[in-house]
Amino acid sequence: MANYSGIHQTSLYKACEGSAFALDFLLDSLNCSLSPRGSNHESEISFMEEERVVYELQDHVAVVTLNRPEKLNALDLPMLHAIDAVGSELAQQPEVRCVILQGAGRAFCAGLDVVSVMGSEELNTSAITQRTHGIANLFQRAAWVWRSLPVPVVAAAHGVVFGGGLQILLGADVKIVHPDTRLCIMEMKWGLIPDMAGTQLMRHAVRDDVIRELTYTAREFSGVDAVQYGFATHLDPTPLEAAKTLALEIAARSPSAVVKAKKLLNAAPYLDAAEGLLHESIEQQSLLGQHNQMEAIYANMQKRKPAFKDYREAPASEAES
Asked: CB neighbours of 111 closer than 8 A, spacing ≥ 6?
């Protein structure tokens, strides 16, 4: 299990002087660790020591909650580590067939807790080009982990979705937002650029000129605008309930076909036509005649609920054993 108890908080009051915004995001501690509680995979809850991230697993759906509501779920280093740890843990659990991502309290995520992060002894700004988490650094991993997760992620957003919070939202496969949600590519306000995988995620869903305008201006936009622009998929006055309905529908499908479909869709934008067509055929061949594919056929013909086997990518001989 991940343990980050060695992180220490530095004093930032002098740096925060005269900044109400900065003071609002000041933390007491940067200590965190991941520890699971309970062993029932059909209903399991895992907590961070300070509950930065919480997830509950039931009916093959993991509901992941960014849980720092008193700070509008602003991202400090413990939360970034927790997101990475939880995402990595869920990726290794075949019983997880879909994930819901939400924020506790009044917001999805207010973005980076600049004061806490910049004041941390752990941060080395000269090292952000180092690939510490696969192809990403820790900050990018917080968004990219959801895109790279083997199963679909449905985000349910409300309140504010600013900066890094927006980039995390974009990592989800499907984004359901409340109409009154406030969103913003906030980084330009602080003289920065979106660097938590946002440029790689936005470009697949949003028109280039829209991305450029919102990046250059840091203009806020609504949930209604987000759907129109492509940042979000659906509007709903109860986004979490809508996300649960969709997640259960996905979880009821063949888990091996869903995993293969996400793998294929993630790769498709980076392949030329010949590579993409071959990739389709390879993944389809790996599904044909396997237990879950045959079970989908029989269950449909017999008009019954399918009994699928849990699935994660593995050598062909082990994939559905």
From this structure: 74, 75, 162, 163, 164, 165, 166, 186
Rounded to whole angstroms, how far apart are CA atoms 213 and 318? 48
Helix runs in the chain, H state only? 13-16, 20-24, 77-91, 114-118, 138-148, 164-170, 198-202, 208-217, 223-229, 239-251, 255-267, 273-287, 291-302
C-alpha span between 180 and 127 (Å, rounded): 38
Q: Domains (ranges, CATH) in the chain?
A: 13-251 (3.90.226.10), 253-321 (1.10.12.10)
- Bridge partner residues of 176 (DSSP): 156, 234
Cβ proximity of 18 and 25 under 8 Å: no
> Can you tell me the mean pLDDT for 105-110?
98
For position 120, what pLDDT does the model report? 65
Categorize the per-residue pLDDT at 31 as very low, low, confident or very high, splitting at 50, 70 and 90: very low
- The answer to whether the CB of 155 falls within 8 A of the CB of 101 is yes
Least confident of 120-124, 205-209, 249-253: 120-124
Q: What is the pTM of this model?
A: 0.83
Is the per-residue pLDDT at 17 higher than 60? no
